[in-house]
Amino acid sequence: MNIKRSLFQTAFVVLLSMCLGTLGLVAGAAAQTGPFKAGFVNVARVLDKAPQAEEARGRIEREFAPRDRELLNQQKEVRQKEDRLVRDGAVMTNEERVRLESDIRGLKRDIRRAQEEFREDLNVRRNQELGKLQRKVIQVIQDLAKAENYDLIVSDGVIFAGTRVDITEKVIARLRTEFESANKGGAAPPAEKAKP
Q1: Residue-wise pLDDT tens digits, 130-153
Q2: How many whole angstroms separate alpha carbon 179 and alpha carbon 134?
Q3: Staple partner for 50: which of 86, 89, 115, 175, CB 3.0–4.6 Å?
Q4: Is 167 exposed, middle or buried (0-12, 13-18, 19+ CB in 10 A)?
């Protein structure tokens, strides 16, 4: 028992000495170079609130709206044929009913294929826009860090960040300013969400 306690105390003293020594080195370095300045950015919030994100969502919606309407029209056509089959199936000839059932199966197969292609294309396009936006956000964060002499900016994996170090709103403000200056001169404002 005493041996374990003695080993524990020795390990604790060594660990405490190492921590104090490290703190002394950091304090000494900070005294020589000035105060350490750190910041935190909630990138998810930036990606949600940045006007560039809204503009990208609008572009994607406008780009994919015609295909979405076409898919809806095809689904409507299938429902009409199914309704016709239910309504008139009893009075149709066997050949007409088989042909209509075959048409319905073929249309449903085409719709499933078109929906899958639509989802894949939409995901690729979203990823392209997200990648472009992420690169822009990183550049703005780096520019802000250099302009305001930050030593460290962290984002993901932070358990807590106080308001003193949270620079998320500064990043969003810079993105908004860049967006507004880029859209002066007649460029279209960010698209509104499409109405169903």
Answers
A1: 999 999 999 999 999 999 999 999
A2: 15
A3: 175
A4: buried
What's the whole-model pTM score?
0.64
Summarize pLDDT for 98-138 with one digit per residue, the tens.
Answer: 999 999 999 999 999 999 999 999 999 999 999 999 999 99
Q: Which fold has domain 37-182?
A: Protein Binding, DinI Protein; Chain A (3.30.910)
In angstroms, the Cα distances linking 115 to 6, 30, 135 are 69, 58, 30
Please calculate the CA angle 115-48-42 and round it to the nearest 5 degrees: 130
> Angle of helix 94-147 relative to helix 168-182, nearest 10 degrees?
110
Q: Which of 128, 116, 155 is nearest to 38 (CA)?
A: 155
Tokens of 77: 């056509």
E strands, 5-62, in order? 38-40
Q: Are 157 and 42 in contact (CB under 8 A)?
A: no
Nearest one of 145, 126, 149, 125 to 137, comparing CA atoms: 145
CA 192/CA 196 separation, integer angstroms:
12
> What sign does the dihedral 70-72-78-81 (CA atoms) show?
negative
Residues found in the chain = 196
Nearest to 38 by CA among 158, 178, 139: 158
Residues whose CB falls within 8 Å of the CB of residue 53, separated by 6 or more in sequence, listed in order: 47, 133
